[in-house]
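Quick illustration, no need to memorize.
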Amino acid sequence: MILFLILVLAAIILGIIGAVAEGLFYLLVIGIVVFAAALVYLGIHLRRSGRRGRTLR
């Protein structure tokens, strides 16, 4: 879960720098890609953690 938070923080920082700095639009694009990767990672992580330990008694 820490990796997800680090990826989201990096995406936000890259996005802000890419939007504010002139000529660094590619950083905004990289930030969007990193954010999408973080969401994919979170989806995989939640899917795996939801399968274990759920037994009915």
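The CA atoms of residues 50 and 56 lie 14 Å apart.
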